[in-house]
Amino acid sequence: MNRVSLIGRLTKDPELRYTPSNVATCSFTIAINRTFTNQDGQREADFIPIVIWRKQAENVKNYTKKGDLVAVEGRIQTRSYTANDNTKRYVTEVIADNVQFLTPKGGAQGSTMDNNFNDYQPVNNAPTMDLPEDPYADFGTNIELTDDLPF
Question: Does the residue 25 lie in any domain?
Fold first, then answer.
């Protein structure tokens, strides 16, 4: 299975192009902060290239800009090409099926983003859901859960 879900901020405005047969394609890169710090105590980011096609490509171009937060669903694809200097180059990118815009329309993040992706602070006290009763009670038999895996 080749599926990926990512949430990150656009590192620059998306680039929209059209194929010779007039199919829209949009390329952009999102920055995703890592959840840990490096040896210097700073948080690093991964920069993931994204490609989306057709109507959604036009929507990404028209409704997002540098600094906007987006959610991307798609698949990882690798390809290669020969560069002008006759060397073979390899590219890994996400081919998006869906891009959701997470920055509110007219949001403050927008183009005022200063490219500092190292200010991520993880939430250590994520909410939990305490159930008032056993969710497995209606199954009629006891269910035993164990951490012992056969492999």
Answer: yes
